[in-house]
What does this fold into?
Amino acid sequence: MEKPISTGIKRSLVDDKARGKLFDDLEANGFCVVENVLTAAEVSGIRKKLLDAAIESNRRGVPTHIPSLDPNDANVRVFNLLDLDPVFLELMERPEAIEFVKTLVGDDFIVSNFTANIARPGAQSMHAHSDLGIVFPGPWLKPWSMNVLWCLDDVHHDNGATRYLPNSHKITSAKDVPHDMLDNMLSFNAKAGSIIIMDGRLWHTSGENVTENEERAIVFGYYSAAFLRPQVNWNVLLAETTQRNLSPLTRRWLGLNGTANMLSADFIEGPDQ
Ligand SMILES: O=C(O)CCC(=O)C(=O)O
It folds into this structure.
């Protein structure tokens, strides 16, 4: 059995009152918006690297338009970001995100996926879904997964902000998902540099970008409880050189060690308990 590794997180990164309000929002609404996590310089640097990553992804033969996902190529999808630029590994590990992961999902989590979607003018909605529903058929009793949306542009209704169904993080089974959910969805609103923390149970879809010339770039860091198989197999996706430079903690978060899925059971110690 592996020994626990310290995460180095010793304190809350926002003051306690503000932090309490964020966690209240997350519990009540299934999401919260944390402003000013990235500086303007970070946003512009990461955004440029994302555009380069999209070009490199196509060069490697991983297309950025997936017809089964998006109706047209105005949605630019970038997969396997962790292998495309070290800046995305840094984002994946940022304490501002990990604090929410540990509080919502728990200490024993894995990184399920790390991707981006740049919604360009003309982008249309994908199928509505919950991220937990994609990796686990239910019942969805706890926040066993969550997404961190790194906003690299201002995100609002007209440029294709992610749309969510209010209160849908309380839905525990597919039969309770309302058929008219698209009519009742609302758009996220967040400034560039914010992160949106989204409970994996919240039903959502990408919005439509109806602007003439505004792009909407979001990086999605998807984390789940370690007992859920991740969306991708990092052992295969990450190049040897990328893997060689990872810390022991990052290796564990990516499920790169020999052991996996050892910690979920609540053991009953004796016959009287
Ligand atoms: O781009 C968005 O707004 C949502 C993307 C999404 O939900 C997904 O890719 O699963």
Notes: Residues 40-59 form the longest helix (20 residues). Residues 1-11 have pLDDT under 50 and may be disordered.
